[in-house]
Amino acid sequence: MPTRLTIATQRPQQLLDITAQVSQWLTICGKREGILHLFVPHTTAGITLNENCDPDVMRDILTTLEKLIPTHGDYRHGEGNSHAHLKSTLTGHQVAIPFANGQLLLGRWQGIYFAEFDGPRQRELILHVV
Amino acid sequence: MPTRLTIATQRPQQLLDITAQVSQWLTICGKREGILHLFVPHTTAGITLNENCDPDVMRDILTTLEKLIPTHGDYRHGEGNSHAHLKSTLTGHQVAIPFANGQLLLGRWQGIYFAEFDGPRQRELILHVV
Amino acid sequence: MPTRLTIATQRPQQLLDITAQVSQWLTICGKREGILHLFVPHTTAGITLNENCDPDVMRDILTTLEKLIPTHGDYRHGEGNSHAHLKSTLTGHQVAIPFANGQLLLGRWQGIYFAEFDGPRQRELILHVV
Questions:
Q1: Which of A37, A76, A77 sits opposite B96 (nearest CB)?
Q2: What is the count of structural domains for chain A?
Q3: ipTM, interface predicted TM-score of the complex
């Protein structure tokens, strides 16, 4: 059964490390081997994997995305969050991670990041194991 | 068995809403729960999820991508569609969507978009349920 | 069981065609139908699908990404490879490809590319069949 986790973001734009929350869910779920699917059911947020150590990497990613796709740009969409729709399409809305012996096979430096581009908000993440 | 849907795009660059077509296929397929894989077997087209309501969002996405990666730029590839290869790599060629009770677990505002970057053409989409 | 392949990249930034290596693994694995998951457990490398014929496409993709996200930019991360973290998030770290009759259902022009952005290095790719 797909499960929903609640993710509370704290800033307008944020890469929020959710590795611990996801790993904990996998442990409770009890499956030992397979693929974990993570799906973001939003259009102004995404999900990505990246460095779990130096927070400056997250800052550099958000700053550079903002330079390429500014919050206030030449957009027509009336809600003023076109930049967030664009950024979510570029990071993507889903990721699938293999696991074995009940552990995600993430690389040593890899963390799972919920990518908020139009926050802060209460968001959802759908998890499903195959 | 993987199934192929035909997608007819109408413009050189277009984000074509295929949500209804994909949902209908899932209903006919009859599976109740799992992951639906959508795969684009092309190199100048992609697939993404985004807002299903205001078409200006699609316009803003295409316009901004075109600003970042212009159709006529400093490219070497002789066919003149390097921009489309780039855009397809940025949106990606596949997406996996969880479903339950025979319904895709898309967010309220999420639609599935076939991303044409070198059309109009007859395209294919490969669907597979796990 | 997930399997690890070793990928040796040869340049600082490179789109390395790994289609033959991956297809060969699928043949040895012996499964006839399903989804092949490819996962990159790194944060300065990614994976993408694109044209398997003209190498100028790979040159154009890398050159344009470099123009958008320069190696030497306004970054804070001390290791000097922020651009590579960004590029890996944009290409993505995983792809899922359907297969039938033991053959990947790639399009006629599609190849699988390991995307090195901070090489050359010995890298890993995790393969898993569902």
A1: A37
A2: 1
A3: 0.96
